[in-house]
Amino acid sequence: MEIRLDKIGDDPYPWRESRTISAESLQRRQLVGLSNVSWGGAVTPISSGFLFSAQLEYKQELSCPRCLKTSWTPVTADVELLLVAASEEPLEGELGLREEDLSVIFVEGEVLDTEPILLEQLQLNVPMRQLCRPDCAGLCPSCGADLNKAACKCDTEQGDPRWADLAALRDKLAE
Ligand SMILES: [Zn+2]
Ligand SMILES: [Zn+2]
């Protein structure tokens, strides 16, 4: 959605929207699904620009990097950003104490497009590598069986004497 910053008076300007974003468009390998994203907040005028605050609420479907099982997780997040006109980059010392901790978004012209902010937030909320559970056993590299459900009949690295020399060498190299 587009917010006209030049139409905002002295009071906080409340806004809310619901968006459908495809998981593929975020290009994160672990992310396989996204619910509708509903988010909203306020744009508040301050001396150095505007304070953009929002709350997001949605669900994301992640696949476990080890066993590939997918599951939905609810996500809620708070966002606070400082909006500054692109022509008026704040000088050092010009921002208040609290504002210094905020990420700054430079806005060209008088119209704020919320979409890039939303896409960035959605990407930030995708974990780098989240297992379905801390001790996920993963899939067998030989037969593909889900080792969380049952052990397979394949030789494991430890049980196969052919791998012993290699393992010893690997341990030596790691020293
Ligand atoms: Zn897993
Ligand atoms: Zn196997």
Structure, described:
This protein has 175 residues and is mainly β. It folds into two domains: 2-124, no CATH class; 137-175, no CATH class. It has two helices and eight strands. It has helices at 115-124, 164-174, and strands at residues 2-4, 13-19, 31-34, 37-46, 49-63, 70-85, 103-107, 111-113. The strands form two sheets. Strands 2, 3, 4, 5, 6 and 7 form a six-stranded mixed β-sheet that branches. The longest helix has 11 residues, at 164-174. The N and C termini lie far apart (56 Å). The relative contact order is 0.17. The chain binds zinc ion (2 copies). One zinc ion is lined by residues 140, 142-143, 145, 152, 154.
At a glance:
The protein has 175 residues and is mainly β. The chain is built from two helices and eight strands; from the N terminus they run ββββββββαα.
Structural descriptors:
single chain; 175 residues; mainly beta; 2 domains; six-stranded mixed beta sheet; two-stranded antiparallel sheet; 2 helices; 8 strands; elongated; binds zinc ion
Low-confidence stretches: none
Provide the succession of SSEs. Answer: EEEEEEEEHH
Oligomer: single chain
- List cofactors, ions and other ligands: zinc ion
Percent range of helical residues: 10-25%
What number is the mean pLDDT? 88
Cα separation of the termini: 56 Å
* Beta fraction: 35-45%
Radius of gyration: 24 Å
Q: What is the overall silhouette?
A: elongated
Number of helices: 2
Sheet bearing the most strands, described? Answer: 6 strands, mixed
- How many beta-strand segments? 8
The number of domains is 2
* Structural class computed from helices and strand pairing: mainly beta
